[in-house]
Amino acid sequence: MLIKRRIGPYRLTQKNDVKNGERGMALILCIGFLALLSILGATVLNLTNNSLSTSGRDQVTKNVFYTVDRAVEYALSPKVYTNLIDVGDQVDLTDVAHKPFIVSPGSDLVRGMVTYEGVGSAPAKSAKYDKTASSGKVYRYFHITAVAESTNPRVTASSFVDEQYVQVFPAVTNVPVEYVSGDVDAPDSGGN
Questions:
Q1: Up-side HSE of residue 123: CA atoms within 13 Å toward CB?
Q2: Cα separation of 141 and 114, whole Å?
Q3: Phi/psi-derived region of residue 106, left when phi > 0, alpha when psi is between -120 and 50, beta in every other case
Q4: How far apart are CA 192 and CA 175, in angstroms?
Q5: Rounded to 5 degrees, what are φ and ψ at 14?
Q6: Taking the mean position of all CA atoms in its chain, how far away is CA 99?
């Protein structure tokens, strides 16, 4: 059945939707699509939150590792090894004089110790990497332990290093040293 209405100079023709059984079908489809988009949006939001959380934990873990790595690198610096003269001498890396150079944001150096173990022979297999191994060189052995932990209360992370390293110095005697300034220093005995 067609209903005709006259509005102004125009005619409007409508179908009677009651007989076709389509009354409210568009509303049901819109609600279905809206529900589907809501589920999709919630899933994307959840994945994004998980990714950000994982990224934050990863950054804290990296900072803790970098603190331990920085402690080892700092132990190789002259600020530390020049204070280690006699066998058994130690430098505490958590001391106020050293710790500010080591700690990364979000982490703390809980323990850090460098111990001088003395002079020794060339390390095993050093000839494979150094063709002049044991030819007039002094090998100084050090032991480093360092533990760093996260300062973030929501992320528990820690890193630990326990290693031995060797410094190699040439055993030079009575060799004059010429500086960039032009000064020449000729030691009576000893080396670099």
A1: 14
A2: 10
A3: left
A4: 9
A5: -125, 150
A6: 18
**CA distances for 192 relative to 25, 86, 134, 189, angstroms:** 92, 18, 17, 10
Residue with tokens 């080892």: 72
Q: For residues 139 and 122, is the Cβ–Cβ distance under 8 A?
A: yes
The CA distances from residue 148 to 41, 72, 91, 98, in Å, are 40, 12, 17, 14
Mean pLDDT for the stretch of residues 143-156: 90
Q: Which residue has the higher pLDDT, 128 or 55?
A: 55
Q: Looking up tokens 């590792």, which residue turns up? A: 65
pLDDT digits (tens, 9 = 90+) for 153-173: 888 889 999 999 888 877 665
Give residue 114's identity as a one-letter amino acid code: V
Nearest to 102 by CA among 92, 117, 115: 92
Strand, helix or coil at 123?
A: coil
Residue 36: the pLDDT is 96
